[in-house]
Amino acid sequence: MSLISLPFFIFMCCFLAAYYLAGEKNQWKVLLIGNAFFYAWSNPVYIIFISISIVSTWYLMRNPVKKNFMLTIVINLGLLIAFKYSVNFGIRDLIAPLGISFYTFMTLGYAHDCYDKKIKPCESLPEYALFISYFPQLTQGPIGTYQEMHDQLVTYHRYDRQNIKEGGYRILIGVFKKLVIAGRVGFYIDTVYSNPKGYGGLTLIVATLFYLVQMYADFSGYMDIVCGISKMLGINLKENFRRPYLSKSIPEYWRRWHISLNEWFMNHLYMPSVTSGWNRKLSRLLGKIFTKAKKGTLRLIFPTMLVWTVTGIWHGAKSSYLGWGIYFAFVMLVSFCTQSYVKKLNAKIHWNPDNIFIKIFQVIRTLVILSFGEMIYRSESFSDMVAIFKGVFTDTRISGSEIAAAMVPFGNGNQAAASILILAVLVIAQAVIEIAKEKDEKAFTGHRYIYAFAMLTVIVLFQVAGGSNFMYQAF
């Protein structure tokens, strides 16, 4: 069930009524039933697999000993690998259950926290099922933790008109980002990246920059929608984005982009790897080769490579995803290894990090490094990736016919020009809002009714019909 559809709108109206009419003892049960209905809508068979994950994890982690923890990992990762990478095993018609990548991470995070005794195991199977299956965060995150979500989910929430208004406004922002901005720029990107060998470097650069816009508008738009839905229920989800394209370095960017996923990797893979025995041994071996290197830096090398390789594979079995992960592993390692040298250099040249021009330079530098990674990620094949990089660095031609071909999805003649102009205005407006909110979170919230009316008008006039599928649903 798409979050941007008439069936979902009807579902939410009926569900909200039932949720707030339910008594104090029954409200969380209504939420659990709503979760099951939402999930079964995509395919009732998938209820079986999420139930296996829920029941096995809950049962085994009631006694969080090492054997049970390892068995929990095997069961959950086994289901994820079997479905997500079935094509690589020669099984082409096995479709992965909705949100399996995200709820698998939630179950594994819960199991790890139980094993580390950070939390007490949940005594109630229905309450644990409620945590894993909470429908706003089920399909694409944010990846909530048991500590953050359990009490909110089982606590009784009275009807609050303010929550409905705030939630509705947040949903409208998300729909605007998705259907207008992400949907429109997607036309150009798909046209160019479907045949990268047929376009010059400038066209490929514009397509890549548009892809950055599309990814952010699509994914953050989804997060706005689910956070708005959850707000209507009186439940606060973790914010998953914090204006990532204003980051001044790649490490900072990944602290601002898909925050919950990066926190999951940090808590459940990266830090355990840093402190592991195998990493200490490998770090000592590296220390014998690189005698002048700092021990702390050496201990970060293998965990960084591991996390980014897993991150790439998590997105899918395509070579472009693995290449993307390796690229950012390299970038992060360069950042770690040169950190002390950069500090010394900055001190010598009296580098002022508060200077506005230096900040702009750092943001642009980050976007350039990021763009190369996204060229790898978006490529359909290795040959396409080579063609894209070759075109960007060696082909500087600007062809009128080439530009016209890329603009065909926007219409013909004046229609295409008007569409591009309107899209440019919308993207610039969104950028202005992001910059303003970096300084003041309450910016552009003083006249919500005016902004809401403006967004609704633009959605009606410029939405992309049939563009309700979100990019991260594929994961």
What does this entry look like structurally?
It is built from 21 helices and no strands. The protein has 475 residues and is mainly α. The longest helix is centred in the middle third of the chain and has 33 residues, at 161-193. The two termini are 16 Å apart. The mean pLDDT is 85.
Percent helix among the residues? over 70%
The proportion of strand residues reads under 5%
Shape: globular
Report the strand count: 0
Instruction: Report, as a whole number of angstroms, the end-to-end distance.
Output: 16 Å
| Distinct helical segment count | 21
- Mean pLDDT, to the nearest integer, reads 85
* Tally of structural domains: 3
Category by helix and strand content: mainly alpha
* Element pattern in H and E: HHHHHHHHHHHHHHHHHHHHH
Q: Give the C-alpha Rg.
A: 24 Å
Q: Biggest sheet, in brief?
A: none
| Low-confidence runs | none
Descriptive labels:
3 domains, single chain, 475 residues
Quick rundown:
With 475 residues, the chain is an all-alpha fold. It is built from 21 helices and no strands. It has three domains: 6-159, no CATH class; 162-241 and 392-474, no CATH class; 246-378, no CATH class.
Helices and strands in order:
Layout: H1 6-21, H2 27-42, H3 46-60, H4 66-84, H5 100-115, H6 125-133, H7 135-138, H8 146-154, H9 161-193, H10 201-232, H11 250-256, H12 259-274, H13 277-289, H14 295-315, H15 319-337, H16 339-348, H17 356-378, H18 382-394, H19 400-407, H20 414-439, H21 448-462
Helix pairs in contact: 1-2, 2-6, 3-4, 3-5, 3-6, 4-5, 6-8, 9-10, 9-21, 10-17, 10-18, 12-14, 13-14, 14-15, 15-17, 17-18
